Amino acid sequence: MAKYIFITGGVVSGLGKGITGSSLGVLLKNSGCKIFMQKFDPYLNVDPGTMSPIQHGEVYVTNDGAETDLDLGHYERFIDINLSKNSSISAGKIYKDVLEAERRGEYDGATVQVVPHVTNAIKNKVYSAATESQADIIITEIGGTVGDIESQPFIEAIREVRMEKGRDSVIFIHVALLPFLGVSTEYKTKPIQHSVKELLHSGIQPDIIVARTTGMIDENIITKLAMFCNIPKQNVIVALDEKSIYQVPQALEKQNLHKIVAEQFKIKLQNTDMNAWNLFVKKINESTKEIVIHLVGKYVELQDAYLSVMESLKFAGYKYGVKVKINWIRAQDLNEENYNEYLKNTVGILVPGGFGERGFLGKFLAAKYARENNIPYLGICLGMQVACIEFARNVLKIGDANSTEFVTNTKNPIIDIIEGKNRENIGGTLRLGAYKTTIKNNTLAEKLYNSDEIMERHRHRFEFNNNYREQFEKAGMIFSGIYEEKNLVEIIEIPKNKFFVASQYHPEFTSRPNKPNPLFDGFIKSILTT
Ligand code: GLN
User: What residues does ligand 1 touch, defined as CB less than 6 Å away?
Assistant: First the structure.
C-alpha cells in the first residue's frame, strides 16, 4: 500500500518546498524506498506550456511529453527518476477535466460542485499516481501558500486523503518561514503559528514543520514552535539557506527527517546510503576554478527560464572540477556592429531553446561567431535551428535562408514544419517528449554518447528541412543524429571545428548530478582541453 506525503507552504512563497520534498525523496530513495513525486499548482492555466518563461521560468518536459512546472526538474535531478503526466497538475487541468465530464453527462444530472467533484478529481490524481507508478511513497507538493483562495480545494482534498488512508499512511509537512527581526535580534514564531492555525481551520494538523530560517536558532524557539504548533519537538526541522541546494538532503539527514517519516509510516528503512550524493557535494565544494560561458538567449531577465540548462552546465563543470559561471547576453541586444565586442573573450557559446523571431539576429550572430572563430558551441533546439540558418546563409550563400517560424513564405525554408503541416501523428502541435535518436558511426555524437541509440526529450514545432541535407553535408555539416522513423534531423555537428554541436532535442532535461548529459559534458570538456 502506498504512503503519501503532502508538502504545504506557509507565510511566504518561494521557500523551497520543491527542494525540501526532493531532498526528502533523496533520503527515502537512498534508504530503499521507491519514490514518485507530484506537484499541484493552484493556477488556472491548464499546464505551464503557454506561460511566459520570463514570468514562470522554464517549461520542463517529461518523457511522456507533459509540459510542466520547473520544480519537476528538481524532482527528477534530485531523485533521478522519470516522472510523468501524473506529476504536474494544475487547478486549470482539474477544472477542465471536471467540466468536460459534466458536458459528457458523466455526473448523471448531479449539481457539479467544488466539493465533492473537484476535490474527488484531485484525490483521483493522487491515487492514480500511486497506482501507475507503483511507488512506495508519493510525495506531493501543493503549490502556493496556505491561506490562498486558489489552493483551498487542494487542501480539502488532502485532508480527505488522510481521512481515507489514516495517520500511518499520510504525513503532512508544512514548510514555513521563521523570520529574524533585526531590530530586536530575535526569531519570531508567530507567522508560523498563524499559518498552522490556517491549516487547522481546514482540518489539517501538520505532522512535521520545516522552519526555513537564516541562522541557527535556539532550543527555546524550537520548544515554542513544537508547543504552539502541536507537534513533538523532534518534528520541528530547521532548514537554513545552504550554499548549494544539493546540500539540503544532507542537512535534513542530520535531523533525521526520513526517520521521523518512517516511524509515523511504521515502515523499516534500509541503511541510508548517501555515498554517491556526498561525493557529488564534495565535488561541488572542491570545484574552485571558474569558467565563463556566454549564453545568448531571449529570456535572460529571469534566469529560471534556463534553470535546467544552468544545472546541466554546472553538473558538467563539477565533473571536471570547475565552476561554470554564465555571462547572460540578451539576444535582442546583439547586432552586426557590436557582437564581436560582446563575444570577444568567450571560451564557449550556448544558444538555448526559444520561440518567436525576437532575438533571432543575436542568436544567429552568436552561432556565426562560434563557427568562424572555432569557439565551442552548443545549440539547443532553436539554437540548432539558428546554427543551420547561419550555415546556409554564410557558408552555402543562400542569402534568404530562414525558418518558416519567422517568415512563412520564404523561398528557402531551411527550417520548416515537416509532415505536410500535420503534426498530429508525431505528438500534436508540438513534438513533445522522448523520441529515439539513431546516432551515426564515427561522429562526435557517437563518441559523446558512446551509444548508437539514445532517447532525448523534445519541445518544438519546426524541423530541419531534408531537401537541404545534401548541400549542407557537402559543405561540412554532419547530421549525426536522426529520428529514423520520420527521418528527422536531431543532431548536427561541424567536424572541422573543435566542438560545434547542436541538437533539436533538449539535452538539459536528462542531466543528473552525477551524470551530466553527454552534450554538456563534451561541451565543457572541449573548453577545458586546449
Ligand atoms: N521555436 C522553435 C520550434 O518550435 C524551437 C523551439 C525550442 O527551442 N524549444 O521549432
Answer: 353-355, 381-382, 405, 459-462
